[in-house]
């Protein structure tokens, strides 16, 4: 192996060590007998058992799934409609709307969090699941819009025109032609919204109320009051789930590519 | 497209389970200090009464006030403010009067703790647990410590954890200099900042949530922390010594109160009544060894209690002058 | 335009208008409004106009926090750039399928909870943590190093949490650079450094700025990293805002700082656009 190639491989390996070190530590310590996370005293599965009795953690996980599910679906639908609307039509103040939708992407999350909290306070909205879902929808929509719009920009107009020429109804053109063509953008927008929602700490921190603890918030308070390895166990399970989803989607994609013959 | 439909069905199912399980369920919304009541106590209460406890935590009185005032009335039912915060909440008309006749366990409270200056008639609050700040150190690795001044030594570099609470920690600096814990004279506060500067290199962290962990994992050898945290650290490592600082320390009496807009008043009373039971109080101080106000479960003799109460000071509401503490705190960080 | 298509137009444009007014403009205008109010000592607001909250920002105590915060964010951004470029360029020596796989692997850790990952660093960095015990065991050091509860810990945490936001846009920019240009540069005798500064950098500058923006801005606000890895000793703008809203009970001042941050952010975005960056590329790199 020549020197240049060696340095390149070393760079890649070192970067991956940096990225994976804390994750590996968590996985390893989830099997540790001692609860202090300091010395490895022996192998055990106990933390996985205690995890399933930790109702607070499980409830927080359920809340996270509900919030992420509802906000992802809603923001994907609104975001997709909005992207098409902004792409196709002119309307008054379009420039302002166009500028506004970037604000949640660029301003610090904490500013968005406190702004939403302030509005909920004047609107007298009880903080809880609903306020969290609205907040998550609010910060996800712009990511869906930008993602869908970047596929729309690449879309040749001829497809839709051809469909109209062939006598398809407006509805059919939309569902049979436009939507399938922009689907990759929609899906990547939805994935982004899901990831952001599942992991959000800052905005949830300000807009959560009683009975709406999310997993990140629960973990935040656990970390502050002394972590136990059942949190490690939960993150290990989540990590494994993520890897399974990613590999199956990778296999699915490569099969699709193979079928299409390129 | 099929994947999409599946996702939507999945979400609808989740929503359904989410909605149905919360309907018609008796609840009580509790906001409490972090590390304060063992989970087991909450679970037992839920099992016995069938009332679901929505439990949230805060780590300072100010955070509690902010959470209460930024949320709709009635969002929380039972909260646990300390002395000066009780007074402030009464003044802000945030609490409702307590009906002692609804608490069968009221008789368990030791009279010593009743009728304190912040709520002289106990119309709005009942004492729950008393916390005091203390110094704890590992005698294996550091010399004997009697007071805050003993913490200023070159060889204690990065070896101290302090409470992440501006009033308590700045208050300790003021006490170290011989001033009152509630002093807000600008010159005295400036002196307190100078004291902090001499101590700065020795401070490893500010932490209110679990300072005991620092002592238990040997991350630091010294801590200025709440008594219960210190006792837990000592249980873990017998070499830890706990002292009440000679120049004074903070007292913090946490109280049961019911918020004005509470929508689950009956359940709130049931919850408080439950927490005042002897065996429940015992369970709480077994896990979090603060000073219980329950006369049947106290770990301290009357003389000891009297001495602790005499030598410590309550934090008082300083009104507009809180901004002086805020700014000094920001300057320290 | 016929009736049907105008209906369609409303259907497609009203949601975005309602959304942007109700959930973006209104909240920010409200924050702007309260930044001009006075606060009372009980955490309430007195509805009289004042500029004192903005004047307060220029108090030396807060200026110091701003500078420290910007300093930490700049160092974080620089380190991310120094990791992302070599990584992206090294990746280009791999086959496309390998590259795609490796980029996916970059993302995997970031699909787990960011707090848990930050916690993993505590286990590694603390006084008797894995790194210190390892180094002590090997006899490389005699006293444990202070790796966390200081600026170093915060920067490690920030770099780690925000790195993918740099790697993805930088990689996507680097992968679009025409390989022939690089080879031509070497053929003409340019050194590696020269090739990087004269060929790679100019061609990928908007990707680099995109990444820098997406690293720099959150780094100013991520209070949970300073809380966990800084030991509550170091305050950045995020902690300051959080304190104003949650502990100091001074909403107007917190609002004024927020408005200040928004203005700063929008100026940075302007620079990005000036460099030829596209708004739709921001944050969409995942």
How would you sum up this structure, described in words?
The complex is a heterotrimer of chains A (262), B (333) and C (286). Chain A has a domain at 56-154 and 182-227: Orthogonal Bundle (MetI-like fold). Helix content of chain A is 78%, strand content 0%. Chain A is built from twelve helices and no strands. Chain B has helices at 2-22, 39-49, 61-69, 83-91, 166-176, 186-199, 211-216, 227-236, 265-275, 278-287, 302-311, 322-332; strands at residues 27-33, 52-58, 78-79, 126-138, 160-162, 203-206, 222-226, 240-243, 249-258, 291-292, 312-314. In chain B, helix 6 (186-199) packs parallel to helix 12 (322-332). Chain B folds into two domains: 24-125 and 255-287, D-Maltodextrin-Binding Protein, domain 2 (3-Layer(aba) Sandwich), CATH 3.40.190.10; 131-250 and 313-332, Periplasmic binding protein-like II (D-Maltodextrin-Binding Protein, domain 2, 3-Layer(aba) Sandwich), CATH 3.40.190. Chain C has 286 residues and is mainly α. Helices cover 72% and strands 1% of the residues of chain C. In chain C, 48% of the residues are buried. The chains are: A mainly alpha (262), B alpha/beta (333), C mainly alpha (286). Chains in contact: A-B, A-C, B-C. At the A-C interface, helix 1, helix 3, helix 5, helix 6 and helix 7 of A face helix 1, helix 3, helix 4, helix 5 and helix 9 of C.
